[in-house]
Amino acid sequence: RAKNDGRGIYRFFEAEMDARMQTRRNLELDLRRAFKASEFELHYQPLISLESDEVTGFEALLRWHHPLRGNVSPAEFIPVAEEIGLIIPLGEWVINQACMDATRWPSHTKVAVNLSPAQFRSENLVNSVFGALARSRIAPHRLELEITEHVLLQHNESTLHTLHALRDMGVRIAMDDFGTGYSSLSYLRSFPFDKIKIDRSFINDLSNQDEADVIVRAVASLSQNLGMMATAEGVETETQRDQVKAAGYTEMQGFLVSPARPIDEINARFFADACIGKSRL
Ligand code: C2E
Ligand code: MG
Ligand code: MG
Ligand code: MG
């Protein structure tokens, strides 16, 4: 009887595993299909100067419009795209599209693009970025590449070499989700980032945790002393905005101003005047 129970449980787990692997396999196939079918789109979230209240740029955030499932979150599909290598062509498409979209904005407006660790393992990243800049003809300093601590986890020579090669082209490099990794501080020593983006979990905890407040302020002074800009992500309330401004952040991003939205909506809201399209004519 005990034996039977054991086997039953085993079969149950086995079936569960099969189902999970099947779901995963389907997602992989679906992603490859979606890339060919152009189901991906970039949405843009404004970055706001805390000094002037003006829009300084936009972060490109990938969206997947699935014909049956609706919008699928990048948190679900980016890790899979990384594992199956699709992030290489997909990431290249993102860089190109973001640079082309930026040509529709005033010439001081930046565009931020997220990069995956896998893109640093491919040989093509520097060439892709160079190509996107050449095709769009945007000034290199308008392109900001966001990397997370995961990119530096391996901390090998080729990663640093790639970062320096990108920087030598004039592109800006930002450290995203700062404070969530294993040894955040040591990564700041390995490369002179242009900007630190503190993870939004710290901003989220501002009102209900004294420690978060101390950390948020410490990161601002750290970045000031290292000569880096500091961006606060995930600002949802006026109070949080006031707090990060007082702490010395240069820039903010969050639902308080806007979530990521399609480019036409962004352009209508932020550049409704004659500015738009000038750079394309
Ligand atoms: P991330 O780069 O840290 O992007 C910020 C995330 O925080 C976005 O989630 C954004 O929608 C969300 N966010 C911004 N402001 C607020 C706020 O006030 N409240 C809340 N609750 N959330 C806010 P999203 O778009 O779901 O993207 C998740 C992650 O997926 C990104 O985190 C990034 O790591 C990754 N990702 C997105 N697009 C790309 C891409 O093109 N390439 C790569 N490699 N990764 C991407
Ligand atoms: Mg980012
Ligand atoms: Mg982030
Ligand atoms: Mg994140």
Automatic annotation (TrEMBL):
Where in the numbering of this chain does the EAL domain appear?
Answer: 24-274
Q: What is this protein called?
A: PAS-domain containing protein
What organism is the protein native to? Hoeflea poritis
Residues making up the signal peptide according to the UniProt record? none
